[in-house]
Design goal:
Layout lengths: L6 E3 L2 E3 L6 H24 L4 H15 L19 H19 L22 H10 L21 H15 L7
Antiparallel strand pairs: 1-2
Helix pairs in contact: 3-5, 4-5
Bound molecules: heme C.
Heme C (HEC) binds next to helix 3 and helix 4.
Length: 176
């Protein structure tokens, strides 16, 4: 039809003009942008809900490392006898505790942690509190200075790892 479907009815004329070229170009362009966006979004971007969730969780953990604290149900060390924890614990012990308690926990300024003498108690829950919260100067028994808190510097998981290592060397550190 060369009149492009022109119709006239009741004096109203309908024109069958083509859409303007710029309009069609935008339409086709939008289709390609849409396809490209979908491929990028699903294949390459990190804009999806799950990726965003993972990113935000990672940021949160970095900001509040204590939020994922390892919690013991009955006070005993949940990492006792855990080979990986013992290995990690030795590393943290040597980096953080050895200066005061000796490289092999034999005692320097701080008392030995490998003998049977426990000034403040020898159960997991007591030792956990002593290491996490420290021993304030007024509660010390040796007059050799306070035992610093490690709640912030190490946090519960690493403290339990250090305790797992200590327990592997010293059977007098008991679970309960
Ligand atoms: C700045 C030195 C210092 C550092 C670092 C230190 N301690 Fe101590 N710690 C002490 C002193 C001093 C005492 C003894 C307090 C007293 O006189 O009662 C002590 C006591 C303790 C006790 C109680 C011992 C008992 O016989 O009841 C434990 C358990 C302990 N420390 C573990 C640790 C662990 C584990 C670390 C590393 C995470 C650590 N300490 C880091 C100085 C330190």
């Amino acid at each position: 039809m060369d009149n492009h479907g022109n119709k006239e009815f009741d004096g109203i004329r309908q024109l069958g003009n083509d859409l303007p070229a710029w309009y069609k170009h935008i339409f086709v362009y939008a289709i390609f942008v849409g396809i490209g966006y979908a491929i990028y979004f699903h294949g390459f971007s990190s804009w999806g809900t799950e990726e965003q969730y993972a990113i935000q969780m990672a940021e949160h953990e970095e900001k509040y490392p204590q939020a994922n604290d390892l919690v013991s149900e009955d006070g005993s060390n949940p990492l006792r006898d855990n080979a990986e924890a013992i290995q990690a614990g030795e590393k943290y012990y040597k980096a953080v505790c050895a200066a005061c308690h000796g490289l092999n926990a034999e005692g320097v300024v701080g008392p030995s942690l490998v003998d049977k003498e426990w000034i403040h108690g020898n159960t997991d829950s007591i030792v956990y509190n002593n290491v996490m919260l420290g021993i304030a100067i007024e509660n010390t028994k040796l007059q050799r200075g306070p035992m610093p808190a490690h709640e912030k510097s190490l946090g519960s998981e690493k403290v339990y790892q250090v305790m797992a290592w200590l327990a592997s060397k010293n059977p007098s550190l008991v679970a309960k």
